[in-house]
Amino acid sequence: MSAEDQIRETVTSNDVVLFMKGTASMPQCGFSSQIAGILNYMGVAYQDVNVLADDAIRQGIKDYSDWPTIPQLYVKGEFIGGCDIVRDMTLSGELDGLLAENNVSYNQDAANEIRKANAPD
Questions:
Q1: Residues 6+ apart with CB under 8 A from 3
Q2: pTM of whole model > 0.90?
Q3: Which residues pair with 92 in a beta bridge?
Q4: Cβ proximity of 81 and 73 under 8 Å
Q5: What does the alpha-carbon distance between residue 61 and residue 69 come to, in Å, rounded to a whole number?
Q6: Which terminal CB of the chain, N or C, has fewer other CB atoms within 10 Å?
Q7: What value does the mean pLDDT take over residues 28-48?
Q8: Average pLDDT in the 58-85 region?
Q9: Do 71 and 31 form a contact (C-beta atoms < 8 A)?
Q10: pLDDT, tens digit, for every residue of 99-111?
Q11: Is the pLDDT of residue 93 over 80?
Q12: How many Å apart are CA 1 and CA 3, to the nearest integer?
């Protein structure tokens, strides 16, 4: 199976997928750690894909999404964005809405706590 086929299969067969450096339990870069931390804290079930374990997937995901950086978050097969976009969506509440409209379970109280902790003084 080609890297593109593996990627397509992964993003279409899982509700939420995070292509990242490292794993959900052991991120290998700060940006991957931020998104994994958000998803973990919010209780979102997701498939993590360690791009460091496979060079073809590491390059393939960039080609697949036409996005040059990793991490990359997908919800219901749709590319959402990288670290800055996911962080901004979390703080604005847009991520909550996206998860809810796609019937992806998450902890609303945890999402609210993230926003409260990051609110300007």
A1: 54, 56, 57, 59, 60
A2: yes
A3: none
A4: yes
A5: 9
A6: C
A7: 97
A8: 97
A9: yes
A10: 999 999 999 999 9
A11: yes
A12: 7
CA 81 to chain centre: 8
59, 66, 108, 111 from 37: Cα distances, Å:
24, 25, 15, 12
Note the pLDDT of residue 44.
98
Confidence of residue 7 (pLDDT cuts 50, 70, 90): very high
CB 79 within 8 A of CB 65: yes
Does the CA dihedral 49-52-56-61 come out positive or negative? Answer: positive
Distance CA 59, CA 107 (A): 33
Contacts 24+ apart (CB under 8 A), 80-86: 82/31, 82/35, 83/31, 83/32, 83/34, 83/35, 86/34, 86/35, 86/38
How many angstroms separate the CA atoms of 85 and 91, rounded?
10
